[in-house]
Amino acid sequence: TVRLPGDASHHPARFVPDFGGNINVExxxxxxxxxxxxxxxxxxxxxxPLRELGSECGIEFDEExxxxxxxxxYDISDPGQHTLIVADPENLLKAPTIVGKRxxxxxxxxxxxxxxxxxxxxxxxxxxxxxxxxxFFPDKPITQYPHAVGKNTLLIAGLQARNNARVVFSGxxxxxxxAFFTSAVQKAAAGSQxxxxxxxxxxxxxxxxxxxxxxxxxxVGEVSHHRVGExxxxxxxxxxxLVEYSIVIEKLSDGKWxxxxxxxxxxxxxxxxxxxxxxLKKNGGKSSxxxxxxxxxxxxxFKVDYNxxxxxxxxxxxxxxxxxxxHTQYERFIPxxxxxxxxxxxMMVGLFLFSVVFLHMKEKxxxx
Length: 368
Description:
Blueprint: E1 13-14, H1 25-33, E2 38-41, H2 48-56, E3 59-61, E4 67-70, E5 85-87, H3 96-99, E6 107-109, E7 114-116, E8 123-128, E9 133-136, E10 154-160, E11 166-170, H4 178-182, E12 185-186, E13 194-195, H5 200-211, E14 218-227, E15 237-238, E16 242-253, E17 256-259, E18 266-270, E19 274-279, E20 281-283, E21 286-292, E22 298-306, E23 314-323, H6 338-360
Parallel strand pairs: 1-2, 2-11, 15-23
Antiparallel strand pairs: 3-7, 4-9, 5-6, 8-10, 10-11, 12-13, 14-16, 16-17, 16-21, 18-19, 18-22, 20-21, 22-23
Helix pairs in contact: 1-2
């Protein structure tokens, strides 16, 4: 996309060594709060601004001049510090929408390690180190426990905020370089397979498509509801009505909106708590379901709240009223009340017979 100077962008990629001008941590944080998307790549020469930005998003970078080290999973071309890591694609997040479709070749990584804030449920561990990796100063002996160890070492992390803003942090700037895109890769261990090209390019493209919302974006199209057999929604439903609800959910694909093919979308019929929860079934280009309203009146909502890994949060709510039956709509006789009907009628018949006997019975006189 060609942009003139001063044009706004909702997808900045931060590959610069330092901020300048009006760009600072507060500005980028406000940009994310406004729904913007950011791709950040760091290195072992990371400065305080990127560390502060990571902290704002639940990511903690290791100290400057540190690097991820793995004495078992380093490339054959490593100069000797074992910081040129060969990351196994099995350590990628199990989310094809974010990391693309597998299989990928091994990934080259050289940079700083990260850890995720355990209290932040929105952080995504996109690519982790192996169980033998750790983050420390490569030219110093280990005198204290490393900042990140094993699977807790994040090489690439992500975040999708509650406003659907997306952020991706890479601890390696070299990860996005042409040299890493086109390099052959082979672990230094004896007998390791040699790959003619890394999986960096495929992963970088998948990450960029996701973070800049070219993938994993959902929206709600048409929503309709009505009684079964009718076409228009009534002013108010009646308890125990049989209703049909349908919703069109679309996914952004190659710049076009196409029907979403998810088969795990649920509908809830909610007053305060859900009275009905059921799966929607695909019906052409829409998802629909028929169900019977509960025998409870009040103000309800047809609610679809779809939150899946890699996709934007989808929410749709439609408010309707459910009234009780009118007097003319009740059954004349309720089958379950037949014993009570029998008891009432038997009481009337018994009273009638008793009255007849009592009124026509004449007591005998003493003379008789």
